[in-house]
Amino acid sequence: MNQRYRSYMWGLVLLALAAPGFSQQAAAETISGKAQVIDARTMVVAGRTVRLWSIWAPALDYVCDADGRTIACGRVARTGLMDLTAGATVRCALMQEVAPGINQARCSADGYDLGANMVHTGWGRPDRSVSDSYTGIEVKSMKAHHGLWRWRAQRERMLRDAAVPAANKENAPR
Asked: Is 8 inside a domain boundary?
């Protein structure tokens, strides 16, 4: 094959990859703006609803057993995400639609990974069915008794619930 033909073929390949409708384009879409936090893993950014990629976080109505007291952990966890995004520009790389109008996304606030920070603060857990990316962070959070790991009874519940198959637990930690 001569050099001219190879250059022509590579040009066609690159043109095909850059063409509208190429399947990777949707996966690479990035949005940015201020975040309106809905719950501990869901936000509206630039008019789009996004769910943080690869983490479980408590729903708003999730309650913790705080060694004999009941704590509204879902609301506290939402406040944690609000703190991480307050005054920051949030950038999200959209990954896939997980429900009508809701995209799973990797998001950062002023350059800091929000999923990693939710796990670090103990208000989120890695969703191992998606990725093991945040597992090391979770181990450190558990040892430091951050967030959901703060109370002994809640830690026992979290570890017990982690053994239940995901299909059997909508709000249980994964």
From this structure: no
pTM for the whole thing?
0.76
- 49, 139 Cβ separation under 8 angstroms: no
Q: Is residue 126 part of a domain?
A: yes
d(CA 127, CA 132): 7
Task: For residue 141, give the CATH number of its domain.
Answer: 2.40.50.90
13-69 tens-digit pLDDT: 333 434 443 334 444 699 999 999 999 999 999 999 999 999 999 999 999 888 888
Cα separation of 62 and 121, whole Å?
17
- Per-residue pLDDT of 80-138, as tens digits, reads 999 999 999 999 999 999 999 999 999 999 999 999 999 999 999 999 888 999 999 99
DSSP conformational letter for 88:
P
Q: How many domains does the chain have?
A: 1
